[in-house]
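We emphasize that the prediction below concerns an isolated chain of 486 residues; any contacts that depend on oligomerization or on bound cofactors are therefore not represented. The input was used exactly as deposited, without trimming of termini.
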Amino acid sequence: MAIDAGTTGVRAFAVGDDGSPLGYRYREFPQHYPRPGWVEHDADDIWQAVRATVGELAAALDQPVSAVGITNQRETVVAWDRRTGRPVARAIVWQDRRTADRCDELRDTGHLPLVRDRTGLVLDPYFSATKLEWLLTAGGVEAGPDLAVGTVDSWLVWNLTGSAVHATDASNASRTLLFDIGRLRWDDELCALFGVPPSALPEVGPSSGRLGATAGDTGLPEGTPVSGIAGDQQAALFGQACFAPGDTKNTYGTGSFVLMNIGAAKTPPIEGLLTSVGWTGLGEGATYVLEGAIFATGATVQWLRDELRIIDEAADSEALAGSVPDTGGVYLVPAFAGLGSPQWDPRARGTIVGLTRGSGRAHLARAALEAMAFSTRDVVEAMTAASGHAIPVLRADGGAAANRLLLQLQADQLQVPVVRPAVAETTAYGAALLAGVAEGVWSGLDEVAACWQEDLRLEPAVGADVADADFAGWRRAVERSLAWAR
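Result of the prediction step, given as a token string:
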């Protein structure tokens, strides 16, 4: 069974030993927005959602649960008291921007090279360290001997094991700005920079390996092994069976996260891209990944629906965009909150170029879908250039992967097949597979790969010359969006 603790809800997901899904349960939990740009969760709400979903699903299954894996929203931080087991503040969510000025200050005082070299990340409030620093300064959390801090996975391990285990894995640790991804350990210099006591941090265990066992009152039978952890995007990469260097997936959600397996060697910092640990516990050392974050993909379709009101439902975008053969020269750059990879320009703003009197709502809808495909190509080309790995196929998941036209446009732009898996819940699937390998349900990566099944494959339908000409227009449009906000 996998526990998928996402940003807005928790999903419990069961997988049989043949790799087939056996069922799931889902429960949302409240979001808190105390100020503009601040996003918080009550960690107790997350735990109660976990207890309810795993208990309901375990009761519905006709076989025992052999292992539990955890996947989670990354970068969100929780602080709690080891004596009472209670949170000492609300969790600060990955979306929270309250530490933006602090990140600017650290960058201006010359700390970025150290952070980039040790962590593979950039100085941005997206990551965990400045959130923890804020809790320990402005947030009123005391750094005493009973303080425990971590990402959501470590909070769940603590509760599942009855306060016996305070642990995370390297994939989550690598998103904190506190973890040396080369040495695979917490970094004392970075902990000192952000004022985070190493004693409060969790032990770093394997992504696939037994961390502990469930205690009573967890929704699961006592003694069930807790045997896998991975951050949500790394879990999705594993669930997509991307086990060889160059294997790449894109999760099309509100934003998109493109991850490429780059093997056992950490690359030097790469402009516009992030380097993280993919997983550990499956052989010596770690498997590393390159990651590109695209801020607005599904959010662009939501904008068409909610603000422009040119569609009634998100699913309507496919039919509307497909009603015209092309955009008529219109390009949309959805830089609503800046641009992520590979530009990383927080001052970019949304741009529409190429409008004529004949441009209509269908052209704009198609331009929105094309923007998703262009953005992904931008990231993939940066990854290919940096890693030397040409991608043989792109594996696609996430809500927007249901849009066949989008996947066709993506295949056209990348000039490689785009494949959608039979199991849509790749994040939870990956966590279940990691736990199953640890407990011997599957012998290794070859048996896990055999569980993966294809649902849809789309081959490129246009030549490279046509795709390149369209992409060149996108690049021109992006140039006009850069550094717009002053």
